[in-house]
Amino acid sequence: MSLLRQLLLSVTLAILVILAGATISSVGSARQYLDAQLQAQSDSTATSLALTLSQPSNQDPTVRELLISVLFDSGQFQVVEFLDPTGRILIRREIEDGSDDRVNAPGWFSHLLPLERHEAQRQVTNGWTQLGVVRLQANDAYARNALWASTARIVTLTVGAGILWGLFVFMLMRWLRRALQDDVTARVQAMAQAAAGDDLPPVRHPAMVELREVAQIITRTHERVRATAAERQSRIESLELELNQDAVTGLANRKYFINELRRLLEQSKPGQGEDGHVMLFRQCDLQSINQTMSRQVVDQWLRNMGRLVLEVLRERLGQQAWLARLNGSDFAFILPMMPGPMAVRVAQAVGEILQAQRIQLGQAGLCRWRMVLTDFEAGEGLSDVLSRLDEALMRAESAGHADVEYLPGEDLRGVTGSRGGGEQAWRALLRSALDEGWFALATQRDPSADVQERAQGLLTLHEPGASEPLSGYLFMPPAVRLGLSAACDVQAISLGLGWLRAHRGDLVLRVSLASILNEEFRGEVAGLLAEAPDQSARLLMDLDSYGLVAHRAPVVAFASMLRQHGVRLGLRRFAEQPEALLYLHEIRPEYIRVSGNLLAAQADSPGARRLLEAVRETAREIGAAVDLAAGS
């Protein structure tokens, strides 16, 4: 029960008690008054009759009986008696109980509120002589009728007052409810429904001063609640930024990227959702950059890079585009509902920005970006897309080029089959290949050689049950990532020496930079070469120019060990690392391969022409051949 109902009910009960008490008190007072009137009437009449009968002229028995009869016939007395001095009744007039038809009051009322029998007696004398006694008993018929009428009138008035009070309470309830609804409830509901920045409806003048104060209190409370809600919303937004934003660059973080990619993949069934592409790019030299520059400069460089890439994305995708920083050196973004050709153009535009933002790392040259792109389909597993990105990144790191490595899902599934492209699958495959000897050497004529008897060797993996062998271009990037490249390169050199025993001519083998940096690898290679001196003299090791610049000491030491065993050297991707020109005399390669990009640029760039001239001049001095037709 509401507080208002309780209050009104208690007041109603109090009013009813008051009315009942007033009714009982009024009826009791009327009864006492009638009793007093009857007693007074009996006393005064008895006195008057006794005086009348004491007159000498009225002492005749006939006259006396006549006077008593006249008094009785007036109907005001129930009993009229005249007794002699001895108590003997001489004259008696009496109305029997229940025989008086003048009584209008019901019997139950007479029993409920009985009137007393009021009697009075007086002596009748003649001088000093007592003639007798007059005794009267008042008739209460008129008093009962008067009491009944009075009681009925009081009860009617009380009931009428109760009914009026009930109507008043009913109207009061409606009025209070309407007042509360208009001035309190409506404002509270408006406060509950109002947004954090909205104001309540203007305060009108309530019917009661108390409600006016309540409305003002509600308004002030709303202001405080709105201020608290705004502060809380600000804290929530701050927490969301902390959860979904990178602290250094202000870009989205890994958690936000994963959640968005998962949402796109899981929002619908295969073939019915949003297909698209994902691009990831990595700064390979962030550790060197941090060692070269201050942290504030590096953070500002990363922020500027992120801002420029984000501007390119928003030009192509709209203002809803975003860029995420997955960790210190990895960045990624999603291209939803974008076909392959358009996605490649966006990736190339981002790649141009990244290449323009490269910074110098001393003698090691400019820092390097590795960029990969893959597609995804709605309903595809998140781990599959991430594994494909990881696979593409491994290939890009192994290839060492500055282009975007595009790895569609169909291409990876066609190569790896049911194994997938994750690190665990590659680790199991490579371990089995090393333990079971599944490697072989595929050779072809070296198109850049001036002589016909020079072949290029490529390590391949022949998995039992597979329809085609895996090329080293496919499994060497995972091997580098997993630390198994040295073991694979040892297998390649061992197979190469075996090929040289069975064939004429020279053989060119590529060795990964990760293997050269492994000291145990250098010792194993030295042992293999020492056992086959004749074949070592016909073996050429193809090295990456970047390794000579970025890791000069271990690469020079490896080249020195190879020369001790008669192995000749070659240098590839020279155009990407022109700084290697400073160290050619330390390794003295037999050939230098310059990519076609530099050749194409010499027509319009005097610097490119001078660089080619310097390469040719240095190559003549050390006795190396310059290959201007080969790619990277």
Draw up the topology in text.
Blueprint: H1 3-54, H2 61-73, E1 77-83, E2 89-94, H3 107-112, E3 119-126, E4 129-138, H4 141-193, H5 209-244, E5 252-253, H6 254-266, E6 276-283, H7 286-292, H8 295-317, E7 324-325, E8 330-336, H9 340-356, E9 369-376, H10 382-399, E10 404-406, H11 409-416, H12 423-436, E11 439-445, E12 454-461, E13 470-471, H13 472-482, H14 485-502, E14 506-510, H15 513-516, H16 519-531, H17 533-536, E15 539-544, H18 545-550, H19 552-564, E16 568-572, H20 584-587, E17 591-593, H21 596-601, H22 606-622, E18 625-627
Parallel strand pairs: 5-7, 9-10, 12-14, 14-15, 15-16, 16-17, 17-18
Antiparallel strand pairs: 1-2, 1-4, 3-4, 6-8, 6-9, 7-8, 11-12, 12-13
Helix pairs in contact: 1-4, 4-5, 8-9, 10-13, 12-13, 14-16
Name the descriptors:
six-stranded mixed β-sheet, Alpha-Beta Plaits, rod-shaped, Beta-Lactamase, 18 strands, single chain, 3 domains, alpha/beta, TIM Barrel, eight-stranded mixed β-sheet, 632 residues, 22 helices
The chain-level mean pLDDT equals 80
How many structural units, i.e. domains? 3
Whole-Å distance between the termini?
Answer: 89 Å
Uncertain regions spanning at least 5 consecutive residues: 417-421
Tell me the overall shape.
Answer: rod-shaped
**Treating each run of at least 4 consecutive H or I residues as one helix, how many helices?**
22
Quick one: CATH superfamily of the largest domain? EAL domain
Tell me roughly what share of residues is in helical segments.
55-70%
Question: Given this structure, which CATH class of the largest domain is correct?
Answer: Alpha Beta
Rounded to an integer, what's the Rg over CA atoms? 61 Å
Largest sheet: 8 strands, mixed
Structural class: alpha/beta
Oligomer: single chain
CATH topology of the largest domain: TIM Barrel
From the coordinates shown, what is the CATH architecture of the largest domain? Alpha-Beta Barrel
E-strand count: 18
Per DSSP, what share of the residues sits in E-state strands of 2 or more residues? 15-25%
Organism: Castellaniella denitrificans
EC number: 2.7.7.65
Protein name: Diguanylate cyclase
GO molecular function, one term: diguanylate cyclase activity
